[in-house]
Design brief:
single chain, alpha/beta, ten-stranded mixed beta sheet, globular
Length: 370
């Protein structure tokens, strides 16, 4: 049996970076492989680029802290990968390598960014691919340019009533055909050399519960059709629904996990126009509290993928809670917050039109198709 754990966004900026993993590390370390989304650069160098809405830079010590906590593979395909320019981008890849963390989704060229991280655990060869739909100008890798693997999406506005000018429009999105085809080609190639293929996608609508963009379903289904065993979503900063498609799990968003509050990265961020727009997306921000993010973002957890020796897969979820110090804590089933996270995940799935069922097994949720 092989156990793979997957977490949401990670980024620590504190004197003791290991403290943000203190409660969850014992669980992460016992997995055969633990994956997380690296939300920040890891460097002591560079300057914020002009188009970084919230420039995020963790100290170099964070890489070793994440590895000590059990994290062995990370995606760096996100909308903060070039916040501090190419210098910090290169430092991040170097610090991860020095900590023996395999990184996917970013690199010195587009070809490198699209390569999978390949690891072998318990005799199982695992490939992890990553791509990013949340792309500030210049953050996508190019033929001879560093950056992250792009998964661009197009947005159009469809009139609800075409013969009634000014009526509210429906927002439609669809994936960039070239990017989606490249992702699917990478998945198919990875299946030729790996027993398991995981795909991390930085995508979706942030801070708003439940709602999925059209392109997310389109890409997720295409990725599984191409051979992916699981989709691991990030970026919205809160949990979103889970779908079982062709017996494979799609975690549309694993939410925040072990990441600092916004003002820790930039004490002036609360005065910016972009932050005021973020506040408008969710009215429950707690600006006078230590934990300022909306309370719903405290609900988090760990995706658990179990591969039997015969090759069969089962998807599970371990509910967790983010404390005031931004450190996640796994929840036992007898804790009322366990029920709150389970209900939120089930409600988010139902509200998004997904028919996944959840049952409790100890302190874990087992995912079932309808």
């Amino acid at each position: 049996m092989t156990v793979i754990l997957a977490c949401g966004d990670v980024g620590a900026k504190r004197t003791d970076c290991a403290s943000i993993f203190a409660h969850c590390a014992p669980t992460l370390r016992v997995a055969d492989l633990c994956f997380a989304q690296l939300e920040t650069t890891v460097s002591g160098r560079g300057a914020p680029v002009p188009n970084a809405r919230l420039a995020m830079r963790a100290p170099p010590a964070m890489a070793a802290a994440a590895r000590a906590a059990g994290i062995g593979v990370m995606s760096f395909a996100g909308n903060h990968c070039l916040d501090f320019g190419q210098t910090a981008f290169e430092d991040t890849l170097r610090h991860a390598a020095e900590a023996k963390i395999a990184v996917c989704g970013a690199g010195a060229t587009l070809e490198i960014a699209r390569r999978p991280a390949l690891v072998t655990r318990a005799g199982v060869r695992i490939a992890v691919l990553a791509a990013n739909s949340i792309l500030p100008d210049g953050y996508a890798a190019g033929v001879d340019k560093p950056g992250c693997a792009p998964l661009r999406a197009h947005t159009l506005y469809e009139p609800g009533e075409p013969d009634q000018p000014g009526t509210p429009a429906r927002i439609r999105t669809f994936a960039h055909r070239g990017d989606m085809e490249a992702l699917c080609a990478s998945i198919a190639a990875a299946r030729e050399i790996a027993d398991a293929v995981l795909v991390s996608l930085h995508w979706g609508i942030h801070m708003i519960p439940s709602i999925l963009a059209d392109y997310q379903v389109e890409v997720a289904h295409a990725a599984i059709d191409a051979g992916a065993h699981a989709i691991l979503g990030h970026h919205p900063h809160l949990l979103k629904g889970v779908e079982i498609y062709r017996d494979r799990p799609i975690f549309y968003s694993l939410g925040n996990f072990a990441i600092e509050q916004p003002h820790v990265w930039d004490p002036t961020i609360t005065q910016s126009a972009s932050f005021r727009n973020l506040l408008s997306l969710n009215p429950t921000w707690q600006m006078d509290q230590v934990y300022m993010l909306p309370p719903v973002t405290r609900m988090t957890g760990i995706a658990k993928l179990v591969r039997s020796d015969g090759g069969a897969w089962q998807a599970r979820f371990l509910p967790a809670w983010i404390n005031d110090d931004s450190a996640p804590q796994l929840l036992p089933a007898e804790d009322s917050r366990f029920d709150a996270v389970a209900a939120f995940l089930a409600d988010s799935s139902r509200d998004a039109g997904l028919s996944t069922r959840f049952t409790v097994d100890g302190s874990e949720l087992v995912l079932h198709p309808a």
